[in-house]
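Folds abound. Consider this:
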Amino acid sequence: MHQPSLPHLLAEDPDLAGLIEAEAQRQHDKIRLIASENYVSPAVLEATGSVLTNKYSEGYAGRRYYEGQQNVDPIELLAIERARSVFGVEHANVQPYSGSPANLAVYLAFLEPGDKVMGLSLPMGGHLTHGWSVSATGKWFTPVRYGVRADTGRVDMDEVRDLALRERPKLIWCGGTAIPRTIDFPAFAEIAREAGAVLAADIAHIAGLIAGGAHPSPVGHAEVISTTTHKTLRGPRGAMVMSTAEHAARIDKAVFPGLQGGPHDHTTAAIAVALKEAARPDFRAYAAQIVANARALAEALVERGFDLVSGGTDNHLILIDLTGRGVPGKPAAQALDRAGIELNHNTVPFDPRKPFDPSGLRLGTAAITTRGLTEEHMPRVAAWIDEVVRAAAKRDESVLARVAGEVRDLLAAYPMPGWAPAS
């Protein structure tokens, strides 16, 4: 059953209700290792599904274009204040609809079309919106891309510095979507200062770790910080852009009216709830456990002969290179899904295969940590992954069915926030 329950949806639209119920059962029964997914609390779910979805609030608190904002303004101000407190920033905008629009707001605030922007190459672990060719950011601006070393899988900051001083970009991104190691924010800040660039830190994946003290913060180093509010932060599907006070006005103007109209007030409220949860001592323990689980899982995978990009992890994320294992990333990920282990195929640095059929797997430990799994479970998870990858290479479906049953048996003892099987 759902928390909150869905009786009206069930009565009004049983087809849709059935699909939602099936998705809840799926989330309950699978080891969810997609690095960008998590489970939110019932309180976040309630805020997301509240009557705030009925309201339109174009503008900012005290400066709206619609009346009836007596309650919405305090909600948004509460979310802003909690973001400032949790992350220690001078300014926060909680209105962006998701991570990509948040990053676009950074471009609009600081760049003109054609200006140079420097970011980690997508195949090396960067994000589409950091200037990749198929993104508007790679079409409207001039991309300058840095990568990682072939021998270490890590960013070489000396190479980044040389590239930045040669190309002189106006904006430098640090962060990305498949970076298993600690981001050296002070080093990026020094390079940006030398190059005369604005430094933007995209912390979408590690925001919860930063909030919980399990990863260094970019505050004091990057003038602008963008993030989603789900992933490790364990909030709703939304985003924020944070900055120094100096850049507050241009960030706000870029978000509205530059890129979007009215904010999603129900999401803003849910962000406020998630930030309150992130300020609690138990969230610090949660963030530390995410990292402990990831390191334990990485060690167990290495013991089973898996090749990990950079050799391991410092955060929640692990990137496996399956080259030499007899199966590419996509069929391996599909087999793992059938076996009750959810993750995604992913490009690895210097991947000889195409992006839609890459050599790697990306996984993260935020969601399984929310369920209550700890380091003691990670060798078993690694063993299942090993079994399934071997079975995928042999196309042995019997192994997949057995592992799926074992996964369900394990997870039955670890409740899922927001839903429980009917008793």
User: Anything to note?
Assistant: The mean pLDDT is 97. The first strand starts at residue 31 and ends at 32. The chain has two domains: 47-278, 286-411. The chain has 16 helices and 15 strands.
